[in-house]
Design brief:
Endonuclease I-creI, 17 strands, alpha+beta, 19% strand
């Protein structure tokens, strides 16, 4: 990692089971260079070195041949060996990368290297910690919301950072305690009926990359602020806090209330520490009972904290943003009135 930027070489050892598709003209040159011959698929010694020899076929190495023809993707573990035998490096591979996927038949994406650990990536992680999830068994990255602004933000940042497009499913309307049912799949968020929640689903390779960068911050029902997140730059943390507040926060200007809600008390403690790092003071964590379950939250109060949060972090949700502006206006007016009384 250099200057908070992630390159392919920073990820290869944690993505050994991934498969890669390369520009075919470049791939042919790479294989010829690594094998030191014009027809690498006939070079038995080269095939043995990269663990790619087909049993019973000493004169034709079928795996290499189908790579060159573009019929199959290359396992990352074999690509690393090929690069090590060649005059090329992983920066050269980056430039000619067509796509990467978790396995031979998994969904593919095209990450845009270098991946910047900044606001956009922080927003992705914050949304997953909020209304999102990473499936424990299938490792699918998932985000659900009914706010088109937040859904569009997540889709845009995922495409910008990892070059991934979601499968978009409309959720059937239900009560809070009812099981999720999916109504139908749509091509665009604009096609979703009003006031319906939506589920965005992304392939396993997205999970592999995110876990490689930030540890298992989301693994089934278990979510946490990992040590990697704590060490991330402030721009990343601002994006994370903003996304999490859009998902799990609440603000009511008439009551002068701004809260972060989360049943995971340790996560709230870690979020408070991040806000403190950013120069924003918070109130103690409090609990209440709702639906026979203990719920947790912490709040922000005071003109300076409201303003600092609003201008330093802000909200994507226009509804929350309007409430924030009303809250600051109310507090400003009350301060003026106090000064007049004095």
């Amino acid at each position: 990692m250099k200057n908070n930027e992630i390159y392919l070489q920073d990820l290869v050892h944690s993505l050994k089971h991934a498969h890669v598709k390369l520009d075919l003209e470049f791939l042919n040159k790479l294989l010829q260079n690594a094998s030191k011959c014009e027809k690498p698929w006939r070079n038995k010694e080269f095939a043995q070195e990269i663990c790619c020899l087909t049993p019973g076929k000493p004169h034709s190495i079928s795996s290499i041949y189908v790579w060159i023809k573009g019929k199959r993707t290359i396992p990352m573990s074999k690509l690393i060996k090929i690069v090590n035998l060649s005059d090329y490096n992983l920066l050269d591979i980056e430039k000619k990368l067509i796509s990467i996927k978790a396995g031979a038949h998994k969904g593919e994406i095209k990450p845009k290297f270098p991946i910047k650990i900044g606001h956009q990536l922080g927003s992705i992680v914050g949304h997953i910690l909020g209304d999102g999830a990473i499936d424990k068994r299938g490792h699918t990255v998932f985000y659900s919301n009914s706010n088109p602004e937040l859904l569009s933000e997540f889709i845009h940042f995922m495409e910008e950072i990892v070059g991934a497009k979601p499968r978009i499913w409309v959720q059937k309307k239900r009560l809070f305690n009812e099981k999720t049912e999916w109504l139908r799949r749509v091509k665009n968020v604009r096609d979703v009926p009003k006031k319906h929640s939506v589920g965005l689903f992304y392939p396993k390779i997205c999970c592999d990359i995110l876990h490689s960068l930030f540890g298992k911050f989301a693994d089934g029902k278990k979510k946490q602020i990992t040590s990697q997140i704590k060490k991330a730059p402030s721009d990343f943390k601002k994006g994370l806090i903003r996304a999490f507040f859009d998902d799990e926060g609440s603000i009511r200007s008439q009551d002068h209330l701004m809260k972060f809600h989360q049943d995971n008390k340790q996560m709230l403690k870690d979020l408070k520490l991040i806000l403190q790092e950013l120069g924003i003071n918070t109130n103690p964590i409090r609990t209440y009972i709702k639906g026979n379950k203990e719920r947790c939250y912490f709040s922000l109060t005071g003109f300076n904290e409201y303003c600092r949060f609003h201008y330093l972090i802000g909200c994507t949700s226009s509804k929350k943003r309007i409430e924030f502006e009303l809250l600051i206006k109310k507090v400003t007016n009350s301060r003026k009135m106090k000064n007049k009384v004095r």
